Please model this.
Amino acid sequence: MYSHGSESLIKQAREIQESELQKFYSRLVKLLQGKEFGHETVDSLQRLHLILSASKYTRTLPPELQKRVLSLLSSPVEQLQVLSSAVLRETPPLSGQELNYNQENVSQLNSHAAALLLSQAGSRADLSSLCAQLLRSLESRSSEGPSHSLTHTLPILNTILTHCPQCLTEDHETLLSKKLVDWLRYASITQGGGASSGGFFTGPRSRQPAPIAELDGTVSGDFFTVLCVGQGFTDDQWMNVYSFSMLRHWLLTYHSVSNDNTTADTANRLQLSLSLSHSHSFSNDDRSEIDGSVVSMVSATSSSSRLLPPKERLREKAFQYCQRLIEQSDRKAHKRTDADLQKACLVEAVCILDCVCVEDASLVYRTFPCIKALFGRLSSDLSFARVMLPIAQFYLNHGEMAAVDCESVWNLVFGRFPAELFNDHFLAHELLRFLRLNLESLQLRVPQYTHSFPNLLKLLAWDSPAVVDDFVDLLPSLVTAGTAVELLHTLLDLPCLSATLVLQLRSACLPISEPGGRCLLSLDAFRNPSFRGLFLFLLRGEAGSGDTIDRLGTLHELLAEVADWPRVIQCAQTVPVLLHIFFNTVTTVADEKLLAHLVLVMLERSSLLLNIPKYIKEIHRVFSCHLLRLCKLHPSLVVDQSHELLEFAGATANVYSKEEIYTHVVWVLGEYLSVSCDSRCSVRLITSCFEALEAVLFEITSSAPPPGAVCPAPRVVTTLMSALAKLASRSHDLIPRVSLFLSKLRTVTRGGSVAWCSDEEDLVAIVTRGEELWSLLKAPGVAQSVLTPPPHVTTPQWHRDINVAMPLQLRALTNLTHSQ
Amino acid sequence: MVRCFLIHTVCPLSALGTGEARMLYSRLFGPDEGMLSDKGLTPEERRVLQKEKIAVVARQVRSAVALSREASGRPLVETVPGEEALALQEADGGVVRLRAGDPFSEEMSALWLGVQSLGFTLVCEPHENLLLAEGTLRNLTRHCLEHLHMLGQGSEVLLRSNRIDALLSRLLPHGQLLFLNHRFGQSLEKEVAAYMAK
Model:
């Protein structure tokens, strides 16, 4: 593991003195001048690499050293090639190295030299030329038969393809498509070197190459794939592995590239439609040619599927290869690693089939039976869940066209997977990615999607930090007018869900009487039949069984001890972020009635939260922020919900327990309870609001805070005063009452200290604000226009003619004067 | 395509700030992303950018490992050289989604395996076969632990990094994930063993 020794090595490498470094360089040059390189050389090169790589800044080697190191690239000793490549990758490219791109012998580059060339490519042109050379070497080799040294060519090409797909010309695509067909479909079906042990006395007859085998040990009766085994492998079998490994990326890339030149694509498609009938009738025509090891390009034109243009032919071969892999995956593998490989192959095969079907819709009908059978075979086994996601993608992409019923697929993806496999990190990642990528078509075609949020949120509740990013993207799609209220409740209870999932797992793996373990009250509650309904509601799979439950308070009490569980805390930390997204989205889909409902939910839930103090504070902050935004957007909400808002604002206890949200409720009442916002706002309403707020303000400023509570925040006091002044400015009868209160306040505080405000500065600020309001209210007309400014003041509609607009002219004049 | 393979620390170190991770080995595959971005960066600037990018990945993985361990509450099992299989079995793993632009120009998935104080990370393109990538990462990690004696106190990961390069050139050539059945695997392992023996 990481030791102090390693740390000090890195430090030394970073802080090495220039003089010391130069000495080291010259010693290394001397070492490299020798003919034989011993242990010391290797060790020094390794140290050189450490020195270069430990710093993010570039060090340049002396030209002599660089040259020597470069020459090691073609050394017969692999260790020296590796070190040379590693060292040079850490240095800036020398102009001399660029020569390599133009060398004729690119095909003779070893893998480590090629890695250096790739990493130091200075431009797209470099990549293009490297690509062209590699392809040329592939082509020239075709006559001599493939060689083992070709294996690294395909990964390099794939790398170039990834970074710069434009590097490939149409001819290149054709060439590589042809080669891939050869390697995929016509690799030897006998075992490679060292196949039979032979022995000294056995004659050449018994040395006949053995046929390749399937993973379950039976002799393979069909073409070679990555799921075939033997004692050893031939070069073309290795190429088969490399070809299949890059096949999907190749199909994806060249699909996207060929989309750019549409004329060629149309031509291909025309040709395809002409030749399709052939390919159907002769889909098995290649079998006759498997007995030979490699079918050469020339003879490859004999049968009818060879009439297909190369791209379509590759598609056809890819299709066959994947069908065979799916078949082979049903065999019982002897080794666990092979069983894992079978799963990975299934994923790849289904993805490739999807890819070829996207390109050529006519393949959909030929593919679906196999995909359906695969689904039927694996759907009940959750250990194949990750194979199901590509299958779901296939159903989503092609199910409609093939008129296939997808119900059972969605029941699995939105039902059992999140409900039973929520603790599988990789499945969660892939499932959420699947949802993100297909959001539009899911919303369009899979009505279950939006209603599955209680299930999907289990992924978030379990592993919040890892998936919150996905939910930031997904949440807006789950917010609809129909789901908004339930979704809000569910988000607020997400920490409870998190705890419940932990309890569910513990309950399943711990015996009822847990010996020695710490006794969990919450676990007992989870197992208690009388509370079963509460937990079952949290664990529900679909929306629609009610927005929330009555005994939420009981549930929170039962879960009191989970407040310090790290998983629950992590989950609680993500909720505020998601609530912001929720509210930002909901205003775009909800009508005023729904928004009014949400305001009520906020007021109600502000005192019904799992007791994690920080969580409660954060949620109150979010509520406050969005209460304000909602009311600003729809001021008549305040008159609509005045009863509930007043009830909330009239409760003195809220001042102490929910300071943040209380302040905002008071503010919106003062701001929007006005005829100018809603004509229904009567004098009576204003008066009753005034009286409720006045009572609270009087109470909190006339006595010490209740035991256990801290003094009310100065902000609450000033907000209450401002709200009262605003209301009074709209109903002048109330002005004397405010003035009386404010004058009393001044008198009381003259003594210097009061029981309800511990900080002197705060008190001064409060009194000053009171005096300001008092003076303002002395001129009721002015007070009204200041405290309830007409809309044209708050949202000015300046004359828009740019030539005469006053602000613009003023700004121009200011600019002129300032510049001088 | 796998974009890079990293070995870095995932535990607090006295020499580093909180949340920092020490990079012990990094290998980027393919051409430099910065070269293709047409931003006109000099090779020196591109190098700094590259190193910063992998440092970002390491930091993100470090937090992911810390959070995941905290949440699971499982005690770390200490292992000693010779117990590589156990260490691997006890390793925790996961995926971090790296958004486009943070730090790579396209979205990536960073697969990680936490073995005690070390993290082994593969940054893959998100459409990559993650099941295969997971298997490859486990295999690579096992080989690294064994051939560089990483469960011990030595610093071979720094002083024998060519072994990791050689491993990668076979098991993950140029970042290409390979579908290797156990027979292909064995034949590569023979090559690896021969390399290590030198």
Summary: The beta strands of chain B are 2-9, 23-28, 92-98, 108-115, 118-124. Residues 43-72 of chain B form the longest helix (30 residues). Chain B has one domain: 2-196. DSSP finds seven helices and five strands in chain B.
